[in-house]
Amino acid sequence: MVKSVDEYLSLLRKELAGSDAAVIQDALADAEEHLRTALAQALSGRPDMSEAEAVPPIVEKYGSPQEIAAAYRQMEARLPASLGRSSYAGHRSVFSRFFGVFADPRAWGALLYLFLSLAIGIVYFTWAVVGISLSLGLLVLIVGIPFAVLFLLSIRGIAFIEGRLVEALLGVRMPRRRMFSDDRTGFWTRIKNLFTQRITWTALAYCILRLGLGIVYFTVFVVLLGLSVYLIAMPITVWVLNMPAYIILGDTEYLATTWSIPFFFVLGVLLLPATMHLAKLVGRGHGALAKFMLVSKKD
Amino acid sequence: MWGNKKNVEETESADKKFQKELVSGVAALVLLTILDKATEPMYGYQIAKVIDGEAEDAAVLKQGALYPVLRSLESSGLLESRVEPSVSGPPRRYYRITEPGRTTLARWREMWNQMRTFVDTVMKGEGNGQER
Prior knowledge:
The structure holds two protein chains of two kinds. Helix content of chain A is 72%, strand content 3%. By secondary structure, chain A is an all-alpha fold. Chain A folds into two domains: 5-78, no CATH class; 89-299, no CATH class. Chain A has a two-stranded antiparallel sheet with strand order 1-2. In chain A, helix 9 packs antiparallel against helix 10. Chain A is elongated, with a radius of gyration of 26 Å. Chain B is built from four helices and three strands. In chain B, helix 1 (5-37) packs across helix 4 (99-131). In chain B, strand 2 and strand 3 form a beta hairpin. Chain A binds chain B through residues 26-27, 29-34, 36-38, 40-41, 61-63, 67-68, 71-72, 74-75, 78-80, 82, 176-178, 180-181, 183, and chain B through 24, 43-45, 48, 59, 62-65, 67-69, 71-72, 75, 83, 86, 88-93.
């Protein structure tokens, strides 16, 4: 018999073990919202009633952890990811799969994310570094600790926002709600949790790491896209506009001859979809990294 | 022989399975109807209370099973939601029906009526067959 909301939540978490971390977080948030509201209602008229008395009928109505876990698993199986499944997958030829990437929203989303990642990386990095240095610097003063707490809270906020962005653009399932916290957990316990939970520190590391990754992503994809467009435009630049095309290898410059232009053009036509495929792949990899560093398995 | 324990258990689990299948189809219809009637966005517990108040046999629909349905309706664009902090306890997610949600509901209601008539007709027909 379940006697408290916390007990129910930990049972539900156990039942959901192995499910997507974000589903677990959503299910726990829903259950907590409902059970606490129902408990408050039940206790409001009856001050003599204890939580252990009030909870069993509420849980009976809400459904056992097994039933509820099954309901969420069923939903997750039916639910498409935010941008929908790639509509072009499967049955088509290698040719149309390769060029069909232009019709894949996931590839465009990933490309947009990778381009934005430099600017966003700079913001996260600056915020994290300024926050860390001020926190450490102020620790000798009395305001140091509250400042550090506020700073770490802001990092958790950034982790949530970044999660929404990753889900929208990369299609990786991330939490849709803030992590649940027991409202009866004491103020000091909450602060202690903030310092002891793995997720605070991995999220902080993510903010710093994000700049390095952002620079690499941005540079690689600007170069690849620029090169593709240049190669595709070569027939026009060379034949119509009469601009000479140079290829520089080491110290020697070669002038592209007229007969070689079609080859460069074909190369560009192949490079552009290849870049999109690479963006999709990198996006998936980054999504996995973000999930590992920003979503807590336990909490 | 029907009294032995194994058979009772089998009957119970078959009942449960049938009930679950019935409920999973109807839950979305019920939720859309309630949110369609509502004048203001509602959160999960409120919705559960409304269901409780309107139906005696609300126990067939576990309250906790409403939430995943709400989420899946939202992800298919029939509902929209926002989270608001509450005075006591964790923040609440308020749901509201969307325009596509309303048109879908109209269609689903029609389908539900057809299904109900169909099942009723078949059941009556079966009764007649036995009498003959």
